[in-house]
Amino acid sequence: MNRARRRRVLAAAALAALSLGALGIVPAAAGPAGPAEADPDPVTQAAPRAVTGEYADRFLVMYDKMHDPANGYFSAQGIPYHSAETLLVEAPDYGHETTSEAYSFWLWLEASYGQITGDWEPFNNAWDTLEAYMIPTTENQPTNGAYNPASPATYAPEHNHPSAYPAQLDSGVSVGQDPIGAELRQTYGTSEIYGMHWLADVDNVYGFGAAPGSSELLGPDYEGTSYINTFQRGPQESVWETIPQPAIDDFSYGGPNGYLDLFTGDASYARQWKYTNAPDADARAVEAVYWAKQFADEQGAGGEISGTVDKASKMGDYLRYSLFDKYFKEIGCESTGCAAGSERSSAHYLMSWYYAWGGALDTSGPWAWRIGSSHAHFGYQNPLAAYALSTDADLVPASPTAQDDWSTSMDRQLEFFQWLQSAEGGIAGGATNSVDGSYGSHPAGTPTFYDMAYDEAPVYHDPPSNQWFGMQGWGVERIAQLYHQTGDERAQSILDKWVPWVLDEITVTADSWQVPSELSWTGAPDTWDPDSPGANTGLHVDVISHGQDVGVAGAIARTLIYYAAASGNQQAADTAKALLDAMWEQDSDEKGIGTVESRADFGRFDDEYQPGGDGVYVPEGWTGTYPNGDQASAGVSFLDLRSFYEDDPMFPEVQEYLDGGDVPQFTYHRFWAQTAVATAMAEYDRLLGAGAE
Question: pLDDT class for 31, splitting at 50, 70, 90?
Fold first, then answer.
């Protein structure tokens, strides 16, 4: 079936689904069939395997555990949870929320399953579920038609501490033109955004009921997934300081203005919808589809996933919003009075921290807005996705300028890694086009990258965003994939320096293993000169702790596997194998791969706000109510806003700690981490083991 015909068929299917929604036929269990209905024992299936080998067998065992309903990785709707366990606070503030990250890793998991078994139905089902539950429907974003690309949003500054919020809207600050909005509308015949919102309350534990297919809050009786948000108030706002709110705010809960006046200052407030995209997740989804296409084409089964490939291409088209400054200001901006951008003068071409869009719920007085982001972190970059979206004929987006944008982005992202590589080999934080989130002037001596200021810890500071080693694994793994696929010399040069640094920090013995956990940084990179890159002799990194984060270990193993397969480096191959063997032999359990974690940070459950410090900041005089009756007001703690945790079967150990007892210890099974290990097993056999040529 050709691409045009496939799109007509997909459009017809979408219209049919929307017709059901318009009739109110949206039961809690509606949507694509859940993974619980899949073959419960893929290892012993009757159909012949496409790939065999010891590590492929291990992948299938882990896959089977993750799809076993008894292990709790998926909801009744077939939605992947952030973790199998409920009591977990990190970026999501509850284990049974889901993220666009989890969906993107699920696609990865199913791509490997298709490669090993030749069965592509679960892969297509994963995208269908993503589309049903994580991409807002027409009803969820009803006033996009009023969006004006010439006036994309009203400026509001970011602030460095939650206590400085709400941030006042300021129409006196000029904003640039959105250069892709009209093109996207013309290409797809709609003003809607085809991108994932980043966070959803799968079990509606908060009770908002901001549901797919609805433009109003359905409340605590709704038994299905619900769009929510948390982070909204600057780099110091850790998850422990967030105020959860619905993505659709019709003023049913919160204060008189819902939750809006906690975040944005305005003369009056309108009921509205608003969504935030995590570009690294959408890019990872494209990355997974790219690999699935390679595998399926090798099997002569490319036609079985062609519809999903088309949808990934479309997602990549909208993902370009992450390549632009937040308010489409020119790159190199150092004051709110700097020039408003036009065409590509506002494009930094990096994968920024987010893009966002929103608008009015009232269709009789419609308005809508869109923003990009000024902040770029190396760990969000995905040059492999940019490569796919600029070179693969089936993935190049349909918009006329998309291929050039992604081609430029691939080169810019590689340069970004080169610019940020320390003397030891680790990759430093990132850059911003808006110092302090308010287009401040660059501090004296600040190095720049295409006129953007170096930022040691982009976006968040509690803890610093470049402290967790996982960002290294995520970011550099994509460099290794690109090197493996293309032989790019820039990618090889980055890896030739990064890999030895990491290998020296990994320990594997007969009864233990450890990988880097936390990093500290000193100095800064040289100002970037693409014609003569600096050596960054003044930028340094130290590994300050090691641990047993299975997801990080899986990402490291995958990086080493791609590098070894392309370079022939035997130490990288041996270390990847040793890590995978150690986790398999030492840490396998009934749910997958698990290690014990001590969570001293759980002492923040009952922290109350301290002026200028930690704790949940609620302005004096502001009060609001949650669907379950929890009250938000000055002096509340994280737990006060989430009293449901007190009924969690895991909470007694936390309460004992809050009462002065020992630090609680838990074994977690995060969806992304299990996938990272499982797919590393699959890739080992494909590239270095039984499946390697």
Answer: very low
